[in-house]
């Protein structure tokens, strides 16, 4: 079992340029986690992996605009903490690593866990004034949410029995 609060704290304690409210900062990570948990109820994604993705995918950004390598650095950070702050099988880590590395660029994916990670991130684009586009979603539920224009009607799907 992963101690998410301890893991989050370890990442938050790293030196960075951001504040909690940065566009790609912790507030965004939390919404990505929430979105992913909602999508996972339909997509069958691995909940442990999508929660780790939410934390790591933007954690190593060095600015809030460009930085095309940030996904790869986020994946590397996950690799650094694996075995020390959390455990994950080789197979699951490979999925997490891939999802973090390639999360930008509007790609689609058939793997339900990778698809859920990417859709969860893209559903939070409205924070930048960009309307999430159903065509950029890989999962059925994220498509439906993007078509609707707000995730609010699905918020009741967030599991309440998870560690914080
Ligand atoms: Fe990103
Ligand atoms: Fe993101």
Principal-axis shape equals globular
Overall pLDDT: 95
Say how many strands there are.
Answer: 0
Q: Could you say what the CATH architecture is? A: Orthogonal Bundle
Uncertain regions spanning at least 5 consecutive residues: none
Identify the bound ligands: fe (ii) ion
Order of helices and strands: HHHHHHH
What topology emerges from the helices and strands here?
Layout: H1 4-12, H2 26-43, H3 47-56, H4 70-81, H5 90-101, H6 112-122, H7 140-148
Could you list some keywords that capture this structure?
Hypothetical protein af1432; 0% strand; globular; binds fe (ii) ion
Describe this structure in words.
The chain is mainly α. The protein has helices spanning 4-12, 26-43, 47-56, 70-81, 90-101, 112-122, 140-148. It has a single domain, classed as Hypothetical protein af1432 (Orthogonal Bundle). The two termini are 13 Å apart. One fe (ii) ion (FE2) is lined by residues 24, 28, 32, 57-58, 121.
